[in-house]
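INFO batch 0412 | record 1 of 1 | parsing
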Amino acid sequence: MLTAQANALNYNQSIPFEDFIRSVWLYMLSENNLKMGAVKLKSILSEMDILMLIGDEIELSDFS
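INFO prediction complete | emitting tokens
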């Protein structure tokens, strides 16, 4: 995932997984290299579906 490669976010087990997933989504919406794809995704899926998709696809070890 490009978000993990940017090393902009780190997962900390003290925060709820859902909060981390939301921070990944917000990062995608704000990062110039990812924003266009995030907006396109938002036009196709609901935010809840996007968060579930990110949660399914994310490898927490990439954010450690």
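INFO post-check: Helices lie at 2-5, 17-30, 32-44, 47-57.
INFO record closed
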